[in-house]
Amino acid sequence: MERTCSRAMYRTHNALSTLNHVLKCYPKEDSINGRVFRVLGNLCQHKKGWADIIISRKPQIITHLLKVLSRASKNTELKENHSEGTILMTLIILKYLTNKEQLLKTFPVLNTIGSLFIKSSQEWQESQTNETVLNALITIIYQFSVLKNYSMVTKLKSTTNGNALKELVNVLLLCPISIIKIIMNFITISKLNSDLPVLDICNKFIDAVVKNMDTEGFKTECLDYIKCLCYLLDHPANKTAQQCGKTISILIQALEKLNKPTDLELECCVLLVNTLNKCQYAEYLVQEQLQCNILDVVIKKLEWVVDNTVIMNTHDFNIVLKWKLTFDYAELYPEGSFSVKRKLCSCCLEILDLRNFDCPMSHGTPASKRLGYPSEDDEDNDDDVDDIDYDDDEDEDSGQNPVSTDKKLAYFTVVTKDDRCLSPCSSTGSDYAALSWASPCSSPRSLGN
């Protein structure tokens, strides 16, 4: 609808009052309700001011809209009195009503939305119907979750048809990314562990990943499930046995089985190693990683990236890494992104170093010395490091700790200074520091915004 037409409908023809009167005269006529809601939805979509006008001057329209959704949630069949199109038009209005804080204060929106969501979810599980309505409901719940108000959690837990938050688990695989965004928004405001079904969601993803492991290769949707598990595990509240369950074990198994040199799987490997590395301050998770042979898995992954046949036949591991991680490596192994492979190497070395692990292929040489890192016992002896020209001037005031992670990664990276592989947790202005869903090293706390 054009802006001039929208303006004329309100100022010249007073269409809002007319439409409201039509709804009063025909409250249960499905075709009339659907067409009126479609007009109102178009108005709200093309001019945001209409949303505020409807809420402030014609709240009866919102009340009537919620009654339609409430009747749909109570019927034996969702389409008994209202067609799917009418319900979708009703949800479109809610989607484009921008002042959602006012809606929460004045109208029982979430109670009605939650009840209809449970009803639609049950019908979808039984007959795979109403998928479009279900996706629209999930989108609206996500839009409200951005407000991060604890009252929303309470209302969704106590709807007429039950707990809408627990029902998210049953439709998790239908729309995993949106549901994870909802959970990550609510987890910052939840007051009880029982508020959100984090463990059930983890178990659902784990079952899906395990089922996919039995087939040849990882499907794209399975890689999305792995990413969602990583995002859940990143939040401190989920780093407990009660919340994450067997997530660590599954992530390590997935890391071991991701062995195709494609950009998608390499980026997933980077995210997995980075996520496991962030668990270093949770003692329980570190112990579980060690029980699952994380060190052997990471070593094999490192050998796979930089070609283990060359590594095992040389005593100078540092020179091998320097040669393999130059841009000549991209020509030798054109499959997969060179920058992603280099990033994976950095993450693997970081997790090994934080575990104080000495690689068996080092021939008895400590990891820090083998890779050319400065050590506390031999700060003045730079013979091993001087053999290789890193083309980077060392900053004398760059840090007090000579064996810090950032320092070691600087020694490990042997390409130009601008292409240096930084730590995934670094706060510098690199491309990897910009956290988003599209980035393989993004943080889940950025998903909801």
Count of DSSP E strands?
Answer: 0
- Overall 3D form: elongated
Strand content: under 5%
Number of domains: 2
Provide a count of the helices: 26
* Helix percent band: 55-70%
Question: End-to-end distance, in Å?
Answer: 29 Å
Low-confidence stretches: 308-338, 354-449
Radius of gyration: 28 Å
Largest sheet: none
Structural class, judged by helices and strands? mainly alpha
Mean pLDDT: 71
User: What is the N-to-C order of secondary-structure elements (H for helix, E for strand)?
Assistant: HHHHHHHHHHHHHHHHHHHHHHHHHH
Helices and strands in order, then pairings?
Layout (H helix, E strand, L loop, with lengths): L2 H9 L3 H11 L4 H17 L2 H9 L1 H16 L9 H13 L3 H7 L2 H19 L3 H15 L4 H8 L6 H4 L8 H12 L10 H16 L6 H15 L6 H4 L2 H11 L5 H15 L5 H9 L2 H13 L1 H4 L5 H8 L3 H5 L5 H17 L12 H4 L12 H4 L18 H8 L37
Helix pairs in contact: 2-3, 3-6, 5-8, 6-9, 8-9, 8-10, 9-12, 12-14, 13-14, 13-16, 14-17, 16-17, 17-23, 19-23, 23-26
InterPro entries: ARM-type_fold (IPR016024)
GO cellular component, one term: cytosol
In words, what does this structure look like?
Residues 439-449 have a biased composition (Polar residues). Residues 375-398 have a biased composition (Acidic residues). Residues 368-405, 423-449 are annotated as: Disordered. The protein has 449 residues and is an all-alpha fold. The protein folds into two domains: 1-107, no CATH class; 197-446, no CATH class. It is 61% helix and 0% strand. The protein has helices spanning 3-11, 15-25, 30-46, 49-57, 59-74, 84-96, 100-106, 109-127, 131-145, 150-157, 164-167, 176-187, 198-213, 220-234, 241-244, 247-257, 263-277, 283-291, 294-306, 308-311, 317-324, 328-332, 338-354, 367-370, 383-386, 405-412. Helix 13 (198-213) packs parallel to helix 16. It starts with a helix and ends in a 37-residue tail after the last helix. The model is unreliable at 308-338 and 354-449 (pLDDT under 50).
